[in-house]
Amino acid sequence: MRAEALEYLAQLARQNRIAKSYIGQGYYGTHMPAVIQRNVLENPGWYTAYTPYQPEISQGRLEGLLNFQQVIMDLTGMELANASLLDEATAAAEAMALCKRGNKKSKSNAFFVADDVFPQTLDVVKTRAEFFGFDLITGPAEELANHDVFGALVQYPSASGEVRDLAPLLSAASERNIMTCVATDLLSLVLLKEPGTLGADIVVGNSQRFGVPMGFGGPHAAFFATSDKLKRSIPGRIIGVSKDSRGNTALRMAMQTREQHIRREKATSNICTAQALLANIAGFYATYHGAEGLRKIAGRVHRLATLLAQGLKQAGVTLAHDSWFDTLCLTGVDAGKIHGRAMTHDINLHYFANGDVSISLDETTTAHDVATLFDVLLGNEHGLSVAVLDEQVVADGVSGIPAACQRESDF
């Protein structure tokens, strides 16, 4: 019976059509290093372990989470990061609550959300705002400082792929006593100027594309980073360095008096868990590749997106933005025809309600994939060559990242 059941399940599984996803919106293809998959993801010593309330028997896992926190701090340019939250959307909702707790200068009860954040993030923030009793205002990010709000959330890069210089916007918000949260893409920060330098008070996002499979939308470990002055209000767990009874350096969960298992209803947040396994995987991914390896991965993704952009422009396609990291948004196109060709090639793209189409590339994308995308987006008679386009991009030094947004600091 067991063999028959397994065969039946295998038959059902074979009916699935495996499609290539370019949807993006916070979910991307990744390559998990085999050593991490075998020794961490598939190791019960890592995936069955509970919260490390007994640090004396959990030093290895605590060190992994401390490494994750350091990776987040380095890439975001912030002073403090927690050991992960549930996902990007709930992290953004937690950021809204932190803005209200931490902003002592504003009497407003309204929170601003840019209209180009990821849709799932907007949905969760809306729900949380309703039950907190906050008024939610949505609109173009450029209008942020025009509103009387206690905090604001913007996406960097935006949901449609635009890479904008946030420094003037965040500076204007600060002058009006508005706390700002930047939701960002971890891989993009390898090449983009870090939000901490731009003036963000809080930085959140998803660490999924650091080696964690898409998994039908989750689970994925969110990250949450802020300044040291907000350390007593930050949600989630923080791993800190301390001394044991013998004076040796040791790791433990720090500042636990903020947390629900101690403070109960007076806790800074009702988030009483974390994606520790996946946070460790993301941290190990960064360690495995190192800074130079991450630059190669991010640079390759951006280069493929840039040559895709150059080819589309040569074919007469209008891009919604002049800047990008990994996502291109096509406007004024026949989305119906593109969708039909995409289905023929088993490709999933992102289709906006206004008829625009976006494509998000990732570390699994190849030059052959880009050639197939030209066929899907333009038809078979486009006459474009990926190799020729690549030579043009390199020779002309073309980049989709504005000079003001290019990262200058090391990590």
From TrEMBL:
Gene Ontology MF terms in the entry: glycine binding; glycine dehydrogenase (decarboxylating) activity; pyridoxal phosphate binding
GO BP, sorted A to Z: glycine decarboxylation via glycine cleavage system
Annotated ranges, domain Glycine cleavage system P-protein N-terminal: 3-377
Pfam families associated with the record: GDC-P
Keyword Oxidoreductase assigned: yes
Enzyme Commission identifier(s): 1.4.4.2
Keyword line: Oxidoreductase
Taxonomy, superkingdom: Bacteria
Enzyme class per UniProt: oxidoreductase
Catalytic activity: N(6)-[(R)-lipoyl]-L-lysyl-[glycine-cleavage complex H protein] + glycine + H(+) = N(6)-[(R)-S(8)-aminomethyldihydrolipoyl]-L-lysyl-[glycine-cleavage complex H protein] + CO2
InterPro entries (alphabetical): GDC-P_N, GDC_P, PyrdxlP-dep_Trfase, PyrdxlP-dep_Trfase_major, PyrdxlP-dep_Trfase_small
Any one GO CC term of the record: cytosol
Function description: The glycine cleavage system catalyzes the degradation of glycine. The P protein binds the alpha-amino group of glycine through its pyridoxal phosphate cofactor; CO(2) is released and the remaining methylamine moiety is then transferred to the lipoamide cofactor of the H protein.
PANTHER family referenced in this protein's UniProt entry, alphabetically: GLYCINE DEHYDROGENASE (DECARBOXYLATING) (PTHR11773:SF13), GLYCINE DEHYDROGENASE, DECARBOXYLATING (PTHR11773)
Stated name of the protein: glycine dehydrogenase (aminomethyl-transferring)
Organism this protein belongs to: Vreelandella sulfidaeris
